């Protein structure tokens, strides 16, 4: 039997996909990248903003066509869209055989069991137990583990046959945090290390706490065990992720432990780079700045989503930081680490954003000269506080502000990349250009995978993905750099 999985959305969702594949691989199911030959198709969805939801729906519908035009017998939908709109998807898309929530994706083998037995499954919480009777994928393993007395318990029997539950407005985070097998889908030289689940920030525009639950740090020992396993498998770059990485440890240990974690990761033999994404300004401590400055494997790359520069809008967004504090943090980072690269994101068109607010944002971007910045148009997400706010901004104004801010950032990025000309950098090779076979595609510490631009290394035959080489920058452009191998 063959199974295909399509993973949409962020790297955090990709890690969930890799865990599901690792669980599935323990059973006699072959993983395929070709949906035409897959008998089981899983779509791990994103539901963060409207465009992501639309992509997820379109992907589900596209994959459902393989039930008539391919080999697909079972279509399973997991991830954020599945969690957020479980009842609607279950009712409106009969072609979907199972809906699996974000807190129970590790039950994927049991879900496959059920759909193969002809059941249609809506599985959202750990209390929604799945039956494992019949000609089961998991039967041998479950039989070996089953308590001989529980099979005769009427309450247990009733729980096993329960198929549907109601979604909760805010899910308590019930994820099991034990280590799981994981099949990497990233290039073999890099992997994501997810250190926490959920989010406690409750920004007024964001639905993540409604979907993923409250913030819960993974146990420190488990994170280190996962990191050691990944490095033993040949990973050279670990990208540390969570919805809020800098909060790591506060809930579980009563103190922030990201700096400590970076120190221990830095000691792993064979690891080359450590990169941290999704940091928050209000928990970016002096201790953490010092870890960045002194640990040789920690990339001088800070991902710091700021969202806006107007204090009035930051308050409306329920952000904990204000402009003066952000300026102070950025100055500390640049004073202590002169070659630091700062990536950020901004939202334009938030409810009530005036031309004055937008002017403050533009002035801040011009002033700070961020190396990398992404811009998003505000998406009105139901059940968030911002969705009910007055003064929603028309789409044409959002688009105009988006275009204007992106044009400003493009000019800044080009100036920064031109300033790199004649500078030497260490890069990791990711592959080759499809048309020019000797043109290698690479990244330095300045570029995060799948987010930032690339470095194109000319006349560089014979390299392999994962090779680390030295280059000299020849030309800088807005979103890419051209270099030669030293």
Q: Figure out the total of helices.
A: 17
How large, in whole angstroms, is the Cα Rg? Answer: 24 Å
How are the strands of the biggest sheet laid out side by side? Answer: 2-1-3-4-5-6
The low-confidence runs, each spanning 5 or more residues with pLDDT under 50, are: 139-178
Largest sheet: 6 strands, parallel
Mean pLDDT: 90
Distance between the first and last residues' Cα = 49 Å
What's the overall geometry? Answer: globular
Helix content: 25-40%
Q: How many distinct beta strands?
A: 19
How much beta, percentage-wise? 15-25%
Structural class: alpha/beta
What do these coordinates show?
This protein has 486 residues and is of the alpha/beta class. Helix content is 35%, strand content 20%. The protein contains 17 helices and 19 strands. It has helices at 11-25, 50-64, 66-69, 80-84, 86-92, 108-116, 139-145, 154-160, 208-212, 220-232, 250-253, 258-266, 286-294, 311-316, 323-336, 355-368, 395-419, and strands at residues 2-7, 30-31, 40-45, 74-79, 98-100, 121-123, 190-194, 196-197, 216-217, 237-241, 273-276, 298-303, 341-348, 372-377, 424-432, 440-444, 454-458, 468-476, 480-485. Strands 2-1-3-4-5-6 form a 6-stranded parallel sheet, sandwiched between helices. Strand 1, helix 1 (11-25) and strand 2 (30-31) form a beta-alpha-beta unit. Helix 12 (258-266) runs parallel beside helix 13 (286-294) and helix 16 packs parallel to helix 17 (395-419). The longest helix is centred in the last third of the chain and has 25 residues, at 395-419. The chain is globular. The termini are far apart. The model is unreliable at 139-178 (pLDDT under 50).
């Amino acid at each position: 039997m063959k199974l295909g999985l399509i993973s949409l959305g962020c790297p955090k969702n990709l890690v969930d996909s890799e865990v599901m594949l690792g669980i599935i691989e323990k059973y006699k199911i072959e993983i395929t990248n070709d949906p035409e030959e897959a008998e089981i198709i899983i779509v791990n969805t994103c539901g963060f903003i409207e465009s992501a939801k639309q992509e997820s729906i379109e992907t589900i519908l596209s994959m459902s066509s393989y039930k008539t035009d391919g080999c697909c017998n079972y279509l399973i939908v997991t991830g954020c869209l599945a969690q957020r709109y479980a009842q609607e998807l279950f009712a409106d898309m009969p072609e979907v055989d199972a809906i699996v929530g974000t807190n129970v994706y590790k039950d994927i083998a049991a879900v496959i069991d059920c759909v193969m037995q002809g059941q249609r499954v809506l599985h959202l919480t750990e209390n929604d137990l799945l039956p494992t009777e019949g000609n089961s994928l998991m039967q041998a393993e479950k039989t070996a583990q089953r308590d001989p007395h529980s099979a005769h318990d009427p309450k247990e029997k009733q729980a096993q046959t329960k198929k549907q539950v109601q979604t909760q407005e805010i899910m308590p985070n019930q994820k099991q945090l034990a280590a799981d097998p994981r099949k990497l889908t990233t290039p073999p030289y890099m992997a994501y290390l997810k250190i926490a689940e959920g989010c406690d920030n409750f920004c007024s525009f964001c639905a993540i706490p409604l979907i993923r639950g409250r913030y819960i740090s993974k146990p420190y020992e488990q994170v280190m065990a996962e990191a050691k396993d990944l490095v033993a498998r040949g990973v050279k770059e670990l990208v540390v992720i969570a919805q809020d990485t800098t909060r790591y440890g506060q809930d579980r240990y009563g103190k922030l432990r990201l700096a400590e974690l970076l120190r221990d990761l830095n000691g792993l033999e064979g690891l080359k780079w450590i990169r941290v994404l999704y940091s928050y300004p209000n928990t970016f401590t002096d201790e953490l700045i010092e870890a960045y400055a002194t640990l040789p494997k920690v990339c001088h790359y800070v991902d710091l989503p700021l969202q806006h520069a107007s204090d009035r809008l930051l308050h409306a967004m329920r952000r904990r930081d204000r402009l003066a504090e952000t300026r102070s943090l950025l100055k500390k980072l640049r004073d202590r680490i002169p070659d630091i690269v700062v990536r950020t994101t901004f939202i334009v068109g938030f409810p009530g954003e005036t031309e004055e607010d937008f002017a403050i944002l533009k002035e801040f971007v011009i002033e700070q000269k961020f190396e990398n910045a992404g811009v998003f148009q505000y998406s009105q997400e139901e059940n968030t506080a911002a969705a009910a706010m007055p003064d929603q901004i028309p789409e044409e104004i959002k688009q105009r502000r988006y275009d204007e801010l992106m044009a400003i950032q493009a000019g800044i990025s080009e100036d920064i990349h031109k300033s790199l000309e004649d500078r030497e950098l260490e890069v990791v090779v990711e592959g080759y250009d499809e048309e020019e076979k000797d043109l290698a595609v690479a990244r330095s510490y300045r570029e995060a995978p799948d987010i930032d631009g690339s470095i194109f290394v000319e006349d560089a035959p014979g390299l392999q993905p994962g090779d680390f080489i030295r280059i000299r920058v020849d030309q800088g452009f807005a979103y890419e750099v051209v270099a030669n191998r030293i």
